[in-house]
Amino acid sequence: MAFYFYLFSALTLCLILLVFNITFGLPIIIGIPFAVSKQSRVRRIVELAKELSGEPASRQALDLGSGDGRYVVALAQAGWQAQGVEINPFLVWLTKWKIWRAKLKAKAFVQRANFWQTDLSSYDVIVLFGVFYVMARLEKKMLAELKPGTIVICNHYQFPNWPALKQEKDIFIYKR
Question: How far apart are CA 151 and CA 43, in angstroms?
């Protein structure tokens, strides 16, 4: 009896570790790991987006690699049609729950997807928390897909060749 208990415990632990590695490890390999932004940073980035892109009514905003959805919710609360793209299924679920809790279903949406396969051409504002090893590739994708006038706000890391329109400490703002 004790043998089966230990076997069941070991298999359960292996399953939990497998799910954890797929949920949080895979995004590190194929994209950007999850990192949390402080609420003060979220508010400032939303303010900058509003200042630079004009009135958000009927405009489209995207959080690329939306994590726990704090930018999606904040952008929707500020008036944008906000969308998030996130590969981690747990974080997609968490964002959907935050959208539901904030009663923003008509203004906010998140989808489970790899942002490398996401078409960026319809957005007016794009927010991202990048990491140094993807910024050059992401810059090429942005320059190829964005419509003229699109505002891109990068939290912490800058694009290597695209000159920033504005910079506030480690927030970099670009305009296509």
Answer: 16
- Are the C-beta atoms of 175 and 52 separated by less than 8 Å? yes
pTM: 0.79
Complete edge-to-edge strand list for the sheet that includes strand 108-112 = 108-112, 81-86, 60-64, 125-128, 151-155, 171-175, 166-168
Token pair recorded at residue 43: 């508010």
Query: What is the biggest distance separating any 2 CA atoms in the chain, rounded to whole angstroms?
Result: 68
Pairing verdict, β 60-64 and 151-155: unpaired
Cα–Cα dist 111/54, whole Å: 26
Q: How far is CA 97 from CA 26, 103, 120, in A?
A: 23, 10, 25
Specify the pLDDT at position 51. Answer: 84
Residue 62 bridge partners (DSSP): 83, 126
pLDDT higher than 90, residue 77 = yes
What whole-number distance in Å separates Cα of residue 54 and Cα of residue 29? 36
Dump pLDDT digits (tens) for 102-129.
Answer: 999 999 999 999 888 999 999 999 999 8
Q: Residues 85, 90, 95, 100: is their CA dihedral positive or negative?
A: positive
